[in-house]
Known about the structure:
The protein is mainly α. It is 72% helix and 3% strand.
Amino acid sequence: NSLIMAQWREMTFLLNIMDDQTISSLYPAATFPIEFRHYLASWIEEQRWEDFSLENVDQEVPAQTLLNQSIHLLQTVAQGNVNNVVERMKLMQLSKNLLNSQRPLEFAVMVKDVLRKEKIIISEKHKLETMQQKVNSDEEDIKKLTKKVALIMEYRKKMHQLEEEFNWEKQNYECMQAIYQQNPSDMKDREMKAVMNKIKTHEFERHRLSMERKHLLRDSVEHLKKSQDNFLSALNAWRWEQHKSVIGYPFSDDLNPLQSWSEQLLVVNSSLRQELMLVHEPLSDIEEGLKALLKVLIESSFVVELQPPQVIKTQSKFSATVRYLLGETLIPGKPVTVKAQIINELQARSMGAALG
C-alpha cells in the first residue's frame, strides 16, 4: 500500500544523505536492524504501536502477537528470496535473533520509538524544504526591490533631462524678451506664452517626479527592511538546523543561497544610499533607516559554517570554519580579516550576562 509505506519511502530518500553513525543509532543492528524496517515496512506502518508502554504490562499479550507476526513475516520474506541465497540466510538469521533476544513489550515500545524518531526527521526535512521555498520566494522579492531601485534611477535621469530642458526654455524665454524689446512684433504674446507654458510644464513634471522619487525611496527602504528581516529569520533558522544536526537531524549546510541573498541586500542598500545623496535635499529618516539596516546586515553576516565538536578534550586539536557572507561585496578587492579568540566557560557566561 503506497499510502501506508509513505513514511518509509521518505526515510529511504533521507538515508542517502544521513551519516552511517546516525543510521546505526536509529536502527541498532542487535535489536532493530534496518533490514527488518525495510522488508516489513508496509506491515509495520499498518499496526498501532502508539498504545504500548513499558509501564502497561496488560499489553504484553498483544505485543507478543505482533512479535510473533513479525518473525513469521520475516521468514516468509526470506523463503521468497529463492534466487538470493545470501539475502535469504541473512533474513532467516534476523528472524532467529528476534525470537531469541526480544521481550515482546520492549520490542513494541522500540518499534513505536523508531517510528516516532522517523516522523521527527521527516518533519525536519519538510521544514528545510519550506525554508528553501521561502528563500526562493524572497529571491523574487529582491528582484522586485531591484526593479524599484532601477525606477528611482530612471526618475533621476528624467529629472536631470527635464532640468536641462527647463534651463534651455528659460534661456530661450529671456532671449525672446530681449529681442522683442528691440523689435516689437504681433507674434510676441503668442510665442512668449507658448514658451512659458513649456517652462511651467517642465517645472510641474520635475516636481511630480521629485515627489514620486521620494515616495519610492521611502517605499524601497520599507521593502528592504522586510526583505532583510526575512533574511535574518532564514539565517537564524539555518543556525538552528545546524545546531540540531549534531544529534542527527537532516541538514543542508549550503550557505550559498543565503550568501547571495545577503549580497543582494547590500547592493540594494548601497544603491539607495547613492540615490539619496543625489536628491540634494535632507531626508534624514531615509538616511538613518538605511544606516541602521546596513549596521544590522554587516553584524549578522558572520557565520560559523563548521562548528567545533560539542565536547572538546583537553590538549586536543579541533577545526572550525567561519564565513563572512558579505565577503568581497562589502570591500571589493580586499579580503576580510577575521580574528577569533577562544574563551573559557566563565568568560562566555560573563559575556552572555553582559549582553542579556
